[in-house]
User: Which sequence fits this backbone?
């Protein structure tokens, strides 16, 4: 060979000999003959074969990415990030520039959290200011500066009196502007008509913008975010258009007076900010698992700006939405929530140096006897939560399966019209829900002019402090109680049909409103009971005549927490959020008692929270970590193919042509294929993704000479010798997962489900004595669990 200067390179010769030793397919004579032919020593004087491209050494754009409505491979993504980190760490020792790059890479996560907090806080401040102004626009306008809401307009006025502090010459109702008077039935009708017209206009704009530009901007967004954080991909759900349209339409939907809140959608807005800003940093842009760590922190930011509760936001992300929440994400979530709360505080959207409209402070202590009504509120919250979930899911399923779902604009307009027409006559339903909660939470003082605080004998009380003792209820208070009772029924019914419409709609505020109304009613009842029967055993010793024993506002707060807990099944995070709202540590025990009771009662009536119920309704492949799998089934009972199914579609590690592989891809819709030694042995080699196969073959046709439909595809480490007349082979070992997760056919399904939950697997291969039998995907597990629960397995829509 040396005399001809055409000897085989050492590694190529070793490759051929290794193939012989490993596979035992060619005799040594045939190898030497092939080597002489390859070197040009004998035969026809063949030219050297073209260099094979190994996609392990030359990564292709698109390989390793995922298609829409597919689940990410958590194990592969984490492995890629570890490899990237090792490479950066090893290079950092070589030069100062590499060390600087390593430092910037470590710091990039904190910088991204800073940007997410700043952007989310700024957007939340703008939403709060705009929604407050547009809500007041339904009732009138400020003549001196039309961009002022009612409260800000009257701040600068020196002409309004203490008794009529809400009325000032600068603020004009629509009746005053149109007919010149605000008194009389005609003025009332004019204000009524304008209120309904503005509500219809706002809701029409909201649903039209959502339908035309960003269909993903509707709803709360939390069920989809939970699904995305579990590893599912929904392209565009956290994109630029969704963020822009959701921000605008959220203001319009809240201002229209519909029974919805902005707190849930703010989590979606914050996650959109996090996803968009991820593209500024390579390690988050190219790794889906790392991006989900950012989205977990962004969910915490959303609750932080919604309630002014940074710690509650972190706990909400940990308890309610996150699927994978390492300690590093906890620290970064805390930092991002802090930055967001600071940004919102700097904007000061409500002008009172508070982060929410219904911040309250209570000063009266609670007594042990009051735990009984607090637990009763918890029972009410659990019953309401279970009722709401069943009724709302029934209505949403009806919307999906009937002609009702074909007319989303008409549905929104009809619900808005009914809401506005029924809400206007009652002052407690006419005001925004946040203002209603603020009034219900309020602890009555001397400076309060609310009808709820207009007790009898106020003039006889010494006005030495703002705190007032328990007093008999006046006619105004009883009137307010009747109005609140009607408002409670109205809110309970209208929220069922509102949540899930094609506008941004949160559930936190409507649920809290229902609970706050019920709590205030019970609180006033307890207050009057203590006043008239202070000599009863219940009140003796701690509630003397003339003392401030009962705080109705505290009952409203506990009721709000109970109802929100019954609907969402939140516990720890909910108590912390409510604690941050009130700023009082001494009320944690009542909140804990009501929240825990609410969860127990709601779980007894139905295991799912509202977000899990909507995930199941939409057919998302979400494996609920809280749900127990207690059935004694084996992997062979769930795997595919079943006995009546065609055999499993596999690819052999060598011997299949490009055309055969392309035909297999065309004829099937699977996300990937097991690679085996041969069809006869079915010995498992690895697993290859469909998307990677398609991209690699397309790139090979363009970049590698001689690749045609008859070219052989090899997944082996060394390419076996080819006949002189054969076309160029294609080596695709680089895209092969050589360590797919496997279980035996007798593995219990509860263990398989645990593996899927804790490792975030896409699929798991089933073997028997090393021989491939079948495959289990997340969708197979969800269908199996649905069958066991007597649900329709075909409701799992996505793979």
Assistant:
């Amino acid at each position: 060979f040396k005399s001809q200067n055409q000897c085989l390179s050492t590694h190529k010769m070793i490759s051929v000999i290794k193939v012989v030793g490993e596979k035992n397919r060619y005799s040594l004579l045939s190898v030497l003959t092939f080597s002489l032919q390859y070197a040009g020593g004998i035969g026809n004087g063949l030219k050297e074969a073209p260099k094979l491209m190994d996609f392990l050494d030359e990564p292709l754009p698109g390989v390793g990415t995922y298609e829409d409505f597919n689940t990410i491979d958590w194990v592969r993504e984490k492995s890629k990030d570890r490899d990237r980190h090792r490479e950066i760490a090893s290079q950092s020792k070589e030069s100062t520039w590499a060390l600087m790059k390593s430092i910037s890479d470590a710091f990039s996560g904190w910088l991204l959290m800073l940007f997410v907090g700043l952007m989310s806080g700024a957007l939340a401040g703008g939403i709060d200011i705009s929604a407050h102004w547009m809500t007041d626009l339904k009732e009138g306008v400020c003549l001196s500066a039309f961009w002022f809401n009612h409260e800000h307009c009257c701040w600068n006025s020196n002409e309004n009196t203490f008794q009529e502090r809400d009325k000032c010459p600068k603020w004009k109702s629509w009746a005053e502007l149109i007919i010149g008077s605000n008194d009389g039935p005609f003025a009332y009708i004019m204000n009524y008509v304008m209120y309904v017209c503005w509500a219809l206009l706002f809701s029409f704009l909201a649903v039209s913008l959502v339908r035309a530009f960003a269909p993903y901007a509707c709803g709360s967004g939390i069920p989809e975010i939970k699904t995305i954080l579990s590893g599912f991909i929904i392209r565009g759900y956290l994109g630029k258009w969704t963020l822009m349209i959701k921000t605008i339409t959220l203001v319009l939907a809240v201002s229209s007076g519909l029974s919805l809140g902005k707190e849930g959608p703010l989590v979606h807005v914050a996650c959109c900010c996090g996803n968009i800003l991820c593209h500024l940093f390579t390690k988050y842009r190219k790794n889906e698992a790392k991006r989900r760590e950012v989205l977990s922190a962004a969910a915490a930011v959303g609750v932080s700006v919604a309630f002014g509760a940074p710690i509650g936001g972190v706990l909400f992300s940990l308890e309610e939405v996150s699927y994978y929440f390492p300690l590093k994400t906890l620290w970064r979530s805390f930092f991002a929530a802090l930055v967001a709360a600071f940004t919102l505080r700097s904007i000061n959207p409500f002008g009172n140096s508070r982060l929410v409209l219904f911040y309250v402070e209570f000063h009266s202590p609670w007594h042990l006897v009051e735990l009984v009504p607090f637990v009763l509120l918890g029972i009410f919250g659990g019953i309401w939560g279970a009722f709401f979930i069943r009724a709302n899911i029934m209505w949403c399923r009806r919307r999906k399966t009937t002609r009702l779902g074909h007319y989303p604009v008409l549905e929104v307009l009809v619900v808005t019209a009914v809401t506005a027409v029924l809400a206007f006559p009652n002052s407690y339903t006419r005001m925004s829900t946040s203002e209603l909660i603020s009034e219900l939470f309020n602890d009555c003082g001397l400076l309060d002019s609310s009808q709820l605080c207009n007790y009898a004998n106020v003039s006889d009380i010494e006005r030495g402090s703002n705190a007032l003792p328990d007093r008999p209820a006046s006619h105004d208070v009883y009137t307010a109680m009747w109005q609140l009772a009607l408002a409670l029924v109205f809110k309970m019914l209208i929220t069922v049909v509102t949540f899930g419409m094609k506008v941004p709609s949160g559930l936190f505020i409507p649920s809290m409103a229902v609970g706050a109304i019920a709590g205030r009613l019970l609180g006033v009842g307890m207050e009057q009971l203590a006043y008239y029967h202070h000599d009863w055993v219940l009140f003796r010793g701690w509630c003397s005549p003339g003392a401030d024993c009962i705080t109705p506002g505290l009952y409203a707060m506990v009721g709000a927490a109970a109802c929100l807990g019954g609907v969402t099944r939140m516990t720890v995070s909910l108590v912390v959020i409510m604690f941050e709202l009130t700023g009082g540590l001494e009320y944690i025990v009542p909140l804990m008692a009501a929240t825990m009771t609410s969860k127990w009662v709601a779980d007894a009536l139905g295991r799912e929270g509202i977000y899990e119920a909507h995930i199941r309704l939409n057919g998302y492949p979400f494996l609920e970590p809280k749900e127990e799998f207690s059935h004694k089934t084996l992997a062979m009972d769930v795997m595919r193919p079943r006995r009546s199914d065609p055999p499993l579609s596999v690819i052999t590690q060598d011997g299949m042509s490009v055309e055969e592989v392309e035909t297999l891809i065309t004829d099937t819709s699977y996300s990937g294929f097991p690679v085996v030694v041969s069809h006869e042995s079915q010995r498992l080699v690895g697993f290859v993704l469909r998307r990677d196969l398609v991209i690699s073959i397309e790139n090979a046709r363009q970049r590698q000479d001689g690749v045609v439909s008859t070219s052989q595809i090899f997944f082996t480490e060394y390419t076996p010798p080819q006949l002189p007349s054969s076309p160029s082979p294609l080596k695709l070992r680089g895209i092969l997962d050589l360590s797919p997760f496997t279980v035996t056919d007798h593995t219990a399904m509860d263990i398989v489900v645990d593996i899927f939950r804790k490792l975030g697997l896409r699929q798991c291969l089933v073997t028997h004595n090393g021989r491939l039998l079948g495959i289990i995907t997340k969708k197979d597990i969800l269908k199996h669990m649905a069958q066991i629960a007597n649900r329709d397995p075909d409701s799992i829509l996505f793979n």
